[in-house]
Structure formats: C-alpha cells, structure tokens
Amino acid sequence: MPKIKSIQLHNYKFFNEQEPINLEVDGECKHLLLYGENGSGKSSIFWGLHTLFESSLKEDEVIQMYFKHRDESAESLVNIYAEKVVRNGIDDYNSFIEVITNEELNNVYRVSLFDLNINQNENAQLINQTSEFLSYKDLFEFQRFWNGRPMNLAQIFISSVLPFLEFPESELIRGRENVKITNAYQKWWEIRHVGPGKTFNYKGNEIQVYKNSLENIAFDRFVNEFNRNIEDLIDFINVNAPLIVKQLGYDIDFNLKYIKPYYKKGDTRYECANFEIEFLVTSYLGEPITINRPQSFFNEAKISAIALAIKLSVLKRKFNDRVEIPKFIVFDDLMISLDMNNRDRLTDYILNPDNDLISKYQVFILTHDRSLFNFIKDKIKNTGKSKEWVYKEVYINEEANKQTPTIYDSPNLLNKAKYYLQIHDYPACGIYLRTYCEEVLDNLYPDSIKYETKPNVHGLLETQKLNLNSKIIYLESFCKDENINYTDFKDLKTYKSVILNSLAHYDIHSPLYKVELEKVLFVIEKLGQYKKVEFKKQNSTFTIDFKKNDGTIYTLGMTIKDKLYLIENNNKLRLSSYCKANITYTNDNGVETKGIEIEKSSIKEIVSETCKLLGIENNIILEECLKDRNKVVVKDLINT
What we know:
alpha+beta, six-stranded mixed sheet, six-stranded antiparallel sheet, 21 helices
C-alpha cells in the first residue's frame, strides 16, 4: 500500500519555513506518533493534510483564499511571520502545503496560491474520500444535543460524512444536459437547495419544471437513489458500529433510523426539508431497553465510543481497495476526554491488526498529553511493531521574538535539559529534568509501584498515579529490591525540590541553582542508564530448586501473573524481582503436591518465604536457580 513519505507545511498556520516532516526510515514509510506541547503547531499538521486533500474538491477561488494575507482574506492560513514577495504583480507569502508519497506515479501533492492543480488530481480526490480525519471535536459533536429531544444525527452526517462519501453514479438533467454525480454531499445539495430545475412558461415567467417533464422524472429517480444509498449506509452502520462499541468495552446495542427528506415542487417554488437520522439505544448490558435520548443517559466516554464506532464504520464502508493510493487516518487529540481505561481500550482497538486500521491505513496519532504519548508508545512496543512507527515531538521555539515549531525526530528530554542549562535558561532546564526524571522512573518501575489505591474527595477508593515526589522517595526501596547501588542516586532525594518546584528556590537564576541542576542532571542521567527489558510474557511457568539442610531437594513450581522483566545496565542483564506469581505445585524429595494456587506479590517474596519455611539460608541467586518449562536456567536464557 502506498504511503506518505513526508509532509511539508511552509508558511502555513503555526509553521513558517520548516523542513519537511520525514516519515520514511530505511526506505519504509511509517505510522506516526507525535507529541506536541500546547500551541506548538501539532494541530497544524492535522489541518495541513485536511486542507491539502480537501482542496481537491474545491474551486480555485476558494483555495486561494487560504493563501492570501489575513488582511485580504478572512480564510487566510498564512503564517503571521511570512514575508511578502510579489509574483506577477500579485502579493505572495510563499505559503504552501506539500505531501510526497512513495507512489510510482503522481507522488507529489501540493497546493499554494499559484499551484492549484490539486483540484484536478483524481488521486488526491480519492485519497480525500478514503482517508479520515478524527479529532475530539468530531466526537464532541455527538454530545451537543439538548437533553429534552431525541438525537438526530443528520447534521453530523451532512457536515462530516457525506462530503467524503461516494455513492453510485446518478443523473440529473440540468439545462437539457445530463449531469452525472457521485459525491454524496453534492447529491444532497442538489436535492436540498436546487430541486428538479426551472423553466419558463408561455408568458416568459420563470417557474419550476413541469410535473411530467424529463427533468422532474429524473429528479424523482435521483432522490430515490440517494435515499436507497443512505439506507444502505445506515444498515451497514447498524450491523458494524455496535460490534466496534463492544470491542471498545461497552455492551451497548443501538440502531440508526433514516427518515427520508420531504420535498415539494410547486408551480413557482421548490421546498425541501432535511432528512433525519434518529439514534436509538435498543440494548444495554445485555438487557433490551429503549433509550431515545442517550445523551441524557450515557456519560461522555460512552457517547464518545458510540461516535467513534459510527465514524469507523463509515470509514470501513467507503474503503476502496481497487485503487492503489495512500490511505491514512489522523487522530488529533482524540482521547482528550477519555479516562485511562477508555484510552487503553481505544489504543488496543487501533493497534489490533484484526481491525484493519494499521494494515490498511497509515495511522497518525497526535496528542498534547505526554503521559498518553508514552502510554501509546509502550503499547506499540508491546505489540512488537515498533519498527513500523516513527516517534516525534514538537515544541515551541522562541527566537528573535518569534514563536516557531521545532520538531525532534528522536525525542530526548535529557538533551533538551542540557541545552537549556547551557544557554542559562534554568527554569526550562528544571522543567525538562522533571519530565525526564518521571519518564525514567515510569519506565523502570512496575505498575505496582507507579499506582496506589486511596480514597478520592468523595471517599471512594480510586487508583491514582503516584506523584513524582513519591516516586523519588520510593527509589531507595526499589534499588534495594533490585540489587542496585542506591548510593549513586541518593542526591536525587536531596535535590528533588529543584525539579519538583523550581519556584520554591529563592533565586532560580543564581549560580547555586545552576550547580543544583547540574547535580540533579548527573544523577538522573546515570539513573537513565538502567533499562527495563521484557523477558517473559504473562502465564509463563518456572521452577526453582531449594537444597534442604538434609541434602534433599525441594522443588517449587510457579506461574508468573505479570510480564517478567530484565534490568539492563552497561549491557549487563539481571532478572527483576518485581513480578507477581502464583505457586502452583511443590515437590518435596519426590512427594508432589499439585493444584496449589497461592498468589505472591513477587518471585523474590516466594523465595524468601520458602527459605524461611525450610529453615535454610537465603543465598539464592535467581538467574542461576530459576528454570523455564524446558528446564533451562534463566542465566543461560539471558545469555542467548
């Protein structure tokens, strides 16, 4: 499948004269996961792709309004810092959008004030119709219904579905000529605003075409075909969308009902009312139920899941596998309104190859939430498909009183902290050190450390993420459990206030504050050299032998309930002790006991308690004693 190699936004919205955003690595075009701090231009990428390919369906005059100065055009998307040049007597600001793909032919798509060929490019039109742009605003549209009335999704379909949908070709007669139309929105425009057409009576007055005219007969047929096409689409959504909702974790069945538009042709006037698409919930949690005002019954997460399912069903319906063109989906802050549980489900849905998103489309995920960026990055890593993605970050760069975006191909917060330390911007250095410190600890700690359960403001128990201060305090205990020399990191606790709250320091521009930052940087950089590497998946089985005081062997079998990790430092690997496990059987000198299910918080706890039970010294080195189901010692597995 062809894909996008690069995207260049030049003097467009927040972007001025930046280099292209490269998505190709080693000859392969990748999916994109991008973090952008607020105001950094992240959404400019979303709108750049949208503007470029939507221009394929627009008139020259409309497109040019995007690339004229804001004093000339209210629709201007020209960067505020762009400098004027005069071309052929016309003011130009060298503003353009360009996408390069790896198609064999027709692989450059570009639009600017003077380059308008995009609206004659059939491939660009097909890309626009088969790709999808999804943002939190699209999902929010499903929330904007008055609680006192049933949900009518017609306007959502008219504005964000029909323009990107192709129906079978239908004909109208306009000016005694046959006009063929396939775009769903154009068809609806003819029905809603134009009608059968006009003619002149014997007095020379303009009137509606006659009832038995070819124009009116063709128009009635045109409307009937449009209605059948919409009904087919609604039937498809009704079958597929509830299945997607269930994959997103909600047991909800619903039905969309299409109500045909009423139209009337008089002698001199034509009237047409909007069609309606009623949304009705038919089942909830496996129980039949009728809910005709879901917006007053469901929370935002459930409505968002339903909205996304409808959107993805439409995308599935319009997928065109007959033409080899780039097809992409852009998710712009789609998960902003979702809690972590729902983000998890949606991420799993997107990354699941069985759902055809990452296999049939080039996926762009854009977010301003750093924790979500890291969460999705970890999810991608766990699928084993990291090489199919590129990861980028975009930040605001302020130079010479100008704000411009800076994009990092290989995000490295530590290097950014060093940069700001070098240019004496100590507060910025402290911010990046804080973020990097949290990233290092999150990557190193197991979930059992990163989260805690405690009462919320309402007194209900809630799982919450530990703050950075608590994570730093926990480091000493973690190092002890993992046989890491804590002496190297003890100063982090001493200087944690520097990165936790720079404003607490009496003078954030003083040489003393710089020295403290340097010390913190040194400690965190050293801590960052420790990496957590996945070793075995959940439900893997192991055995471990204990030599009793009488010389006999006591064997214990266990099944790990979490992923088992290795701790890497300077290319040396050791087994992490943080892994929940169940004791499943014992063998005491040939006497075997099966069917045991005793849960323990870690393998280390199992070993410690077993040694205490047997009355033997705990000198167990896990790597040398733990064996997999094939009786291979973990140390040998690590070395291979």
